[in-house]
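ok trying again, last paste got cut off:
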Amino acid sequence: MDTRMYVMTQKKLEEIPDKMYLPLQVGKAGRPSLGYPGDDTGEQISEKNPFYCELTGIYWVWKNVKCDLVGICHYRRYFTRNGKLLDREYIEKTIQKYPIIIPGSSCVNEPDAFRHYAKRHNGRDLELCREIIRKKCPDYLAAFEFAMNTVLVSTCNMWITRKDIFDRYCSWLFDLLFEAEKEIAFWEYDDYQKRVMGFLAERLFRVWLFMQPEAIMEETITLADSSEFSHAKKRADLLYQCVRLKIRPLLELYQAGAMENGLVQPFCCKDDFEQKVPVWVCWWQGEDEMPELIRGCIGSVRKCLPKDKTVLRLITLENCMEYVTFTEEVIRKFNEGKISYGHLSELLRAELLFRYGGMWVDASVFFIKPIERNLPERRLFTLRSEPPEREDDIAKGRWFKGLWFAQKGHKLFRFLTESLWYYWEVGDEPAEGSLIDDLIAAAYDEFPEIRQELEQSGACGNAVFLMHRWMNRIYTPERAAALEDYGTFYQLDHRAAYRKENMAGERTLYGYLFTEGENEV
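nice, full thing came through this time. structure:
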């Protein structure tokens, strides 16, 4: 299949490793060449670029390119999935079910999309588009009114679709814009407002989408320089090596067999966990400050645990010292902002599992069905992603830090506890990224027995991230059942813009799973 992702640019780019991504110099007419194909050949409107922005490149693709699938992105904006550029395999597979892929919808901070536009640009131009639609394609007028009265917009004129659908849209869009161009007073606008045709196209895109029969899927847009995608893996590897250097004295002690007694001192915990396996969940701010998603996730964990074998413990800033022994140095650096809540959670996770064993669950992990009853008896269990979800992830899919089962005193969590203590005692700079992943990687490389146990742990493909990608899709019983078939545990993102209804008022999967009161903490 001939699939092409055109990168609209007016600057020289670092080479993108994936050859499917093709730089296209927009507004090339009358400008020095960057060495890329430009929008000034064949049938083109390159000279209109100051007014049409990336649309001159879109027009050129429409008129001059023959391919099966086509996508539009920018030199600083790309479609990504978990920090990785969408690749050919993913796009071609997704398009079979969802022929139109668009950026995740943005919610305007005005009463509706029309007033949002009018506050930032000239509202008369959008009124002009309404009148042109009324005359040229009146069947789209209701869609225009609906789009302008919602609070959702699609920005950047970016999407991925079949070329025949792309051509259908361009024929509709440019017919309207060329008519509007005749009546817009460009000479009254500064250089920014002169880009009016690009701004209008962003609003008209959703109008057109409402009238199409094809299924639509939203994907994340990441603001990034093209070099970041080729350098991300190198950066992750360098950070890992830096962490190894910082804990090198501790590694040498382990290698010399001098850590028999270790650094962890005895600690008296009054909790007997009702003679059951503890399940640890942390939300530092406490139950009263939980967002809806976190409350629902923790409620799903409680509901799906075998109650005769396990007992859940919620750790907060208020009660954490009843279970662990954060040093004065750690507390000082946390108060100074050198240790983040995330890194404090890493310390907590390691020490809890070493001292008491049991299960650690990130607060944003959702249980879709009851767990296997024998899981709490496993010596070590995590989830593995095969293939890895992200190329720049030092874990490389070998473990999932959001969920662990471990027996009390396990060597991995003893090593993590001591390494984290040592790291924060001797270091005075905030750690970058996931420190615990780097330390697990060190244990994987240094200790054959830990490596063997991790390699024998449960495999999940990439299913653990599937629910996150489906949350804003329309709820169907088949989709909910599919989640149960694919797995038990799913990682969500409490910062994501999940919605209970889509733009048409239909209930989403998030709306179904997080019905108020369905999962209670």
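cool. The longest helix spans residues 226-246. The longest strand covers residues 216-223.
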